[in-house]
UniProtKB/TrEMBL annotation:
This is AKA14 protein. One of its GO terms (cellular component) is cAMP-dependent protein kinase complex. It comes from Trogon melanurus (Black-tailed trogon). One of its GO terms (molecular function) is protein kinase A regulatory subunit binding.
Length: 133
């Protein structure tokens, strides 16, 4: 089912900058409804030149710091890509999609409901792995 992201205007190729892309990602994240105990930090990673488009890669790291453990032992990353077509007019909206660090499944923000459980599962799996090592 299609998920309408309310109050977020589409970013066009004309309007795109790396900073505006990061702001758009922050706007998308604000619609996810994750618990306030989760903190995140986003960063631009790289620009990728393709034949028919340009892709801009970002990472958003998530964690739940506590008073007892202000520096978490594990984080969960969500990787965003903003793709700008070289074929479509620059007035068209850019494409935004994301993947979770432990998955190859590509999500489109307007077509999926983000689940906080995905972040919890990544962190739990990392903790289990650390205990085994």
């Amino acid at each position: 089912t299609e998920c309408v992201i309310k109050n977020i205007q589409k970013l066009t190729g004309n309007d795109f900058t790396v900073e505006r892309g990061q702001q758009k990602i922050e706007e998308i994240i604000s619609t996810w409804g994750v618990h306030e105990s989760w903190l995140h930090w986003s960063e631009f990673l790289q620009e990728e030149e393709l034949k028919y488009s340009k892709r801009y890669h970002y990472r958003v790291r998530w964690s739940i710091p506590t008073r007892r453990k202000p520096i978490p032992r594990a984080t969960a990353s969500v990787y965003f890509v903003i793709e700008i077509s070289k074929i479509k007019p620059a007035t068209f909206p850019v494409e935004v999609f994301f993947t979770l660090e432990s998955s190859t499944l590509i999500h489109r923000p307007e077509k999926c409901h983000f689940r906080e459980k995905w972040l919890k599962d990544i962190i739990e799996n990392k903790m289990i792995l650390m205990e085994r090592l």
